[in-house]
Amino acid sequence: MRFYTEHTNRRHNTYGAGTLAGYGTHTRGWDAGARITCRDRDGRDEFDIYMTSGSHESRADVYLGTVRDTPDGPVWVPAGTEG
Fold this sequence. Notes:
The chain is mainly beta. It has one domain. It has no helices and 7 strands. Strand 3 (24-28) and strand 4 (33-41) form a beta hairpin. The chain is globular and about 35 Å long. The mean pLDDT is 92.
């Protein structure tokens, strides 16, 4: 598996698991959350970042941008600026 996710619980124990491209994480508060989807684009890592409505309501996710691996290291590409 190319991607690995981890979280720390309130007892400060850290857990992790591998995941595949196309999957990711969704962390929700009551009214707000964030979702990250991982992708493999031609052998380079990419992470799409979305703002979500949390677990209380259901609204459409808002795409914020992508963290993209480049030969010079990771870069942030805000939504609407892809080219």
